[in-house]
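Person: I have long wanted to understand how a fold can be written as tokens. Underneath my words sits a plain record pairing an amino acid chain with its backbone structure tokens. Those tokens are not coordinates but codes from a learned vocabulary of shapes. I should like you to check that the lines agree and flag anything odd. The protein I mean follows directly.
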Amino acid sequence: MNNTTKAKYELARKMIKGKIDIDEVYLMTGIDKAELEKLKEEIDPAAKEAKMFQDLDNTDLNIGEIIFDNNETDDSYDENY
């Protein structure tokens, strides 16, 4: 890897750390989007975990039924319970 390529990867790392979108990093550096996704996962392990769980629901996780509160955050709705 030559110095120019190293500089591109360093720039990409800094941009990803700065929460700049992958598409913008791709336009600025020319690094393949798959490589940028790998860099993002290396920099932010939480992004990898979020990507793993994004399409799962309670049946996939085998945690049983989940009850959702559709009421607003007003406590007056909870007076009868």
Q: What stands out?
A: The CA atoms of residues 42 and 57 lie 26 Å apart.
